[in-house]
Amino acid sequence: MLVDSHCHVYGFRIDELESFKNILIVGVAEDYESSIKNLEISKTFSNIYAFVGAHPWNLQDIGDEEVEKIIEIAGESSGIGEVGLDKRYSKKTIEEQIKVFRLFCEVASEKNLPMNIHALDTWRECFNIVTSHNVKRVLFHWYTGPLNILEEIASQGYYISINPAVIIQPKHRVVLEKAEIDILITESDGPYLYHGMNLSPLKIRELVETMARIKDQPVEYLERVIENNFKKFIG
Fold first, then answer.
1. In the predicted model, what is the mean pLDDT of residues 132-152?
2. pLDDT tens digits for 75-114?
3. Bridge-partner residues for 53, per DSSP?
4. Is residue 60's pLDDT more than 90?
5. What backbone phi and psi angles, to 5 degrees, belong to 180?
6. Are the C-beta atoms of 50 and 38 separated by less than 8 Å?
7. Is 133's pLDDT higher than 90?
8. pLDDT tens per residue across span 202-211
9. pTM for the whole structure
10. Are strands 197-199 and 192-194 parallel, antiparallel or unpaired?
């Protein structure tokens, strides 16, 4: 099956979700409300795995009480995300981001849950924090970080996700060219309009075909590898 490892499913209509039924999807959250919506959606759609979390961009509007509420429902979920750090767009809250991210890492480690991580301009910091908390299953979403961390990510059994933006984003394409296929998983980050590209799970087929060309691998083989990587990540 095709895989979308990072999708804001609560942003789609029910009829749109119906059209994604042949794709394995991780529904990531941004706050308590979207976490609850993900859990509800996953009860209707067996192909959707509900993650709960608080996006680092939102921490200026989210208090400790809401974070605690998200942590309380983590045991009902399939994983933690979208969580992490961001020094590019939310640098002024970085200390709060680190505090909250560590809390989520503790929960993921204690409950053996996978983590879906946003790490814009903080790739090394996020990697160091998850490893220090002994988190076993980690996905670095839409990876555009340093190439010299890829080998360390692989050595920990962690994964990176490749977005359809790889078609037009040079930094992301270089990552795809350098990374080994056994750490790659596909994602859409939909619903999102990126430089005129309408990102959704329906873009995954085209994405796999693009990846196959770049990696010089048969499409069917790459699909199987990505699905296997996804299942290991989900556990």
1. 98
2. 999 999 999 999 999 999 999 999 999 999 999 999 999 9
3. none
4. no
5. -75, 145
6. yes
7. yes
8. 999 999 999 9
9. 0.97
10. antiparallel
Would strands 48-52 and 115-120 be described as parallel, antiparallel, or unpaired? unpaired
Q: Nearest CA to 141 among 16, 15, 30?
A: 30
Q: Please report how the helices 94-111 and 64-72 are oriented relative to each other, as an axis angle in degrees rounded to 10.
A: 20
Q: What is the layout of strands, in order, in the sheet containing 159-162?
A: 2-7, 23-27, 48-52, 79-86, 115-120, 138-140, 159-162, 184-186
Query: Token pair for residue 18?
Result: 């119906």
**Alpha helices, DSSP H only, in 7-89?**
14-18, 32-44, 64-72
Nearest to 181 by CA among 150, 206, 205: 150
Ramachandran quadrant class, 49 (left: phi over 0; alpha: psi -120 to 50; beta: rest) = beta
Give the confidence band of 162 by pLDDT, cuts at 50, 70, 90.
Answer: very high
Element (H, E) at 194: strand 192-194
Amino acid present at 139 = L
DSSP lists the bridge partners of residue 186 as 162
Show the tokens assigned to 137: 């299953």
CB-based burial label for 58 (10 Å; 0-12, 13-18, 19+): middle
